[in-house]
Specification:
There is one protein chain. The chain is built from no helices and eleven strands. The N and C termini lie far apart (about 40 Å). With about 120 residues, it is an all-beta fold.
Length: about 120
């Protein structure tokens, strides 16, 4: 059974920090994962990419989070992390983990974790 289990969301004040983590499990991930990342969806808005990272560790960030968020991964654990600093109310959203299996190459999604930043 494929699972992406997210943790670390919650309520934080403006300027605060949170770290999200997501572990991918299931037979399809036994050989490992290709790209892993985080998307978010705020109320009334489309889901957008926050950051992703290749298997060999190359990160990519959405412009508004550059310099504040850091994505990293542990290939041995099929786990991806998102360190979020200097959070603002505009970062409030449901954050979704995503992982691309090696074969077949297909993207899987977590159920989402709520991040709320109060002003």
């Amino acid at each position: 059974q494929v699972q992406l289990v997210e943790s670390g969301g919650g309520l934080v004040q403006t300027g605060g920090s949170l770290t999200l983590s997501c572990a991918a499990s299931g037979r399809i991930f036994s050989p490992g994962t290709n790209d892993m990342g985080w998307y978010r969806q705020a109320p009334g808005k489309q889901r957008e990419l926050v950051a992703d990272i290749t298997r060999d560790g190359r990160p990519n960030y959405e412009d508004s989070v550059k310099g504040r968020f850091t994505i990293s991964r542990d290939n041995a654990k099929n786990t991806v992390y998102l360190q979020m600093n200097n959070l603002t109310p505009e970062d409030t959203a449901v954050y979704y983990c995503t992982a691309v299996a090696i074969f077949p190459s297909r993207r899987y999604w977590g159920q989402g974790t709520q991040v709320t930043v109060s002003s």
